[in-house]
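During the no-cost extension, the postdoctoral fellow (Dr. R.K.) reprocessed legacy sequence entries with the updated structure-token encoder. One reprocessed record is reproduced below for audit purposes.
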Amino acid sequence: MENSALIFIPDISGFTKFVTETEINHSQHIIKELIEVIVKSLSPGLIVSEIEGDAILTYQFGKPPSYSELTELAKKIFLNFHSQLRIIERDNVCSCGACKGSSKLTLKFITHFGKLKEVEVANFKKLIGADLILAHRLLKNHIPLNEYLLLTEHFFKAQKNSEKIDDTLLTTNIEEFENFGKVETKYLDFSPFIDEVPRFPKTMKVAKGKSSESISVVINAPINLVHLELIDTKGKLNWMKNIKEINDTNKINRINAVHICKFDRMDLKLTTRANMETETEYFFQEDVEIKNGIEFINDFHLIKFGNETKLKYKITYDEKEHKSFFAKMIYNLKLSMVMNTMLKSQKENLKNFKIYCEREKLNGRKI
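Re-encoded structure tokens follow.
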């Protein structure tokens, strides 16, 4: 039996190009984050039927929400979506196409009111009906905007006994589809709402304390590939000496992301601290904590030389306040021992990292 229902489809535009032309793992994780933001922003009455790649099909049986309620819902989702994009941009350390290009994604909404029927297929509820087909057809339209709320005339007809609608900001649009003929719609331009999206300024915590000696290696690979491999936390298993395991729940390495490198005799807790880049240089730092209270910073500097990259490493640290001269002396002694051990290990690690990057270059690692 068919029932009257609202069909509401938030649709991420630019999705296909974003996924096919960028680093696939990161693009999938970013899209997943954005879809989760959209779903969490939906009103309780809306039911998620399917997630169709870049679009979330939702519906609600019965009387539709008012125009103002629906507009406010779409605006809330829109602001949360763009807020998340700005947070990703703020915390980004990755130079892959997905992480750098996510800010180009846009969001539109398709709204229709019609008849739907639920059918059970292999223990799953599936929606069917001509109105559902029409709503999907409306995803491809002739509206000359990237971000908007589209509403069909059927939605407005269902509002007859509801509030008086101020349509001064709405633009009339007519689409024509096979089997449906001419379909009258109206749309609300959402681009002005971008000004209401909060700003999340980048706060860089670049350390400028005391430093150890510097060690370096020249890698026959482009700087952006070397940088991608350097910030790949799980990739450390491929080049760090004597590492046994990496605990990392982050899908993408970003500012303040934490991972644990496990060795036989100690664990290193690493927190991504800072990342800066110019056309010819990258600067990357991560805080390091060891169980005995020792803290310092892995400080990496990448310099572009044609198609090669010079990678310089040093340990940077700040002098801590201590309760007594004796406590300070003990801490500095421990720090000195750890730094000497780390520098010795990192010399071998950088040689391994050079071999790994050059092999990835030959294997055609997508940048």
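The longest strand covers residues 106-121. The helical segments are 15-20, 24-41, 67-91, 97-101, 130-137, 153-157, 223-231, 325-362. The remaining legacy entries will be reprocessed before the final report is submitted.
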